[in-house]
Amino acid sequence: MEAFTHSQGRYFLHGLLGILLLSVSACVGVGSDSPEDGKPDVVATSTIIADLTKNIGGDEIDLKSILQPGTDPHVYEPVPRDTIVLETAELILYNGYNLEPGLIKLIKAAGVKADKLAVGEVAKPLELDKGGKTTVPDPHIWGDVENAIKMAIAIRDALIKLSPEDREKFSENTEKLVKQLQQLDNSITQQIATIPKEKRKLITTHDAFQYYGRAYDIPIAGTLIGISTEEQPSAQTVKQLVEEVKKTGVKAIFAETTINPALIQTVAQEANVKLAPRKLYSDSIGASGSEGDSYIKMMQSNTRTIVEALSE
After folding, report:
1. DSSP string, the chain
2. Which of 62, 74, 263, 267 could bridge across to 229 with cysteines, CB 3.0–4.6 Å?
């Protein structure tokens, strides 16, 4: 009987140790960074959508942004963790119009069951010529702040559908954000109007500012590459842009935060014009603490950079 008790005690201790190890494993597992707090899990693809959603959802949602500040959505390649984040989400907010092709493919995969909203597609796109008779929708719709207002309202409605009990808070936050966006829209219009008409031409690295140009009366006079940064400009393309810069008579051209500035620097040197001292935010907000670390701040920064460089 004594030997039996000793054996049983040994197995009991082993079992207890196993239970403790399992408990610890559960605590440090994949889901440990998403505590069960009862808040809906919302995933945004781009930093711009994440920023708008943060303003609207506030503390009522658990929000994850797949793309980090400064990341180019056109060429982003999803990693395994992205699949986990998307498959555990309750709502996925993405831009659409093929801004983030790698992530869109993943979002539409069979394992992703969340509600999905192509936030950018609530605005009517500009159709840009891709050569011949082919056109593609321009995904950079947030360049016109009126479109950002449409995006905000669409995000609000999606969040209300997901969490009806937070309707009042989402609506209140959206109303506040829309007022700020309306002020921003008016401010950009007034600031761009201060640039003399003959100097009001924008030349950038890639074709991300058509909405901005049309909304605020500053024509896009040329770009190094088209709407997607996947394109690789040839020596002939660089030469053509140099000639275009000379022809327009602009005093400055602009690099972008998400794209290597080497080629646009070459264009500036060969065309004998200034490269603006600050880069434009095109497809992403800036890192935390930068002058463009929110959608509103990035638009303010871009406008300030453009006005200062072209008004000289």
Report:
1. -HHHHHHHHHHHHHHHHHHHHHHHHHHTSGGGGS---SPPEEEESSHHHHHHHHHHHGGGSEEEESSPTT--TTT----HHHHHHHHT-SEEEE--TTSSHHHHHHHTSTT--SEEEEGGGGSPPPEEE-STT-EEE---GGGSHHHHHHHHHHHHHHHHHH-GGGHHHHHHHHHHHHHHHHHHHHHHHHHHTTS-GGG--EEEEES--HHHHHHTT--EEEEEE-SSTT----HHHHHHHHHHHHHHT-SEEB-BTTS--HHHHHHHHHHT-EEPSSPBP-SSPPPTTSTTSSHHHHHHHHHHHHHHHHH-
2. 74
